[in-house]
Write a structure and sequence with these properties.
The chain is mainly alpha-helical. 53% of the residues lie in helices and 5% in strands. The protein has a two-stranded antiparallel ribbon with strand order 1-2. The longest helix is centred in the C-terminal third of the chain and has 23 residues. The radius of gyration is 19 Å and the shape is rod-shaped. Keywords: Membrane, Transmembrane, Transmembrane helix.
Amino acid sequence: MKGLVHCRACGEPLHVQATACPHCGAPQRDAASGAVSKSAGGLVLAIVSCVLGVLTLLGLLSDGGPADRDELLGGLCLSLIAIVCGALSIYHQKPGRTAAVVGLVTAGAALLVCLANL
């Protein structure tokens, strides 16, 4: 079985010179250089999701008192942005899955805090 490697996304075997996985369609190699392709901003969505989720949750829970309407509206918007970024990162199988999951969990908790206090 020489000339076979595993897909970076789904793990299925494929030919070493394949540019995309025949099973899931994930890009494997840059056709011109033969190097493994890197998507532009691969970690950006996951990092944005993680940072926004954590900061939003900390911002809502930091002072211990009830949040005013502006804080809740800001927390609602930021948590929705974090959820969208995390979901896109996971859906498009970008690197940084752990950061995206952390962002989704913390943004979900922040969203629940916002909705509970409205």
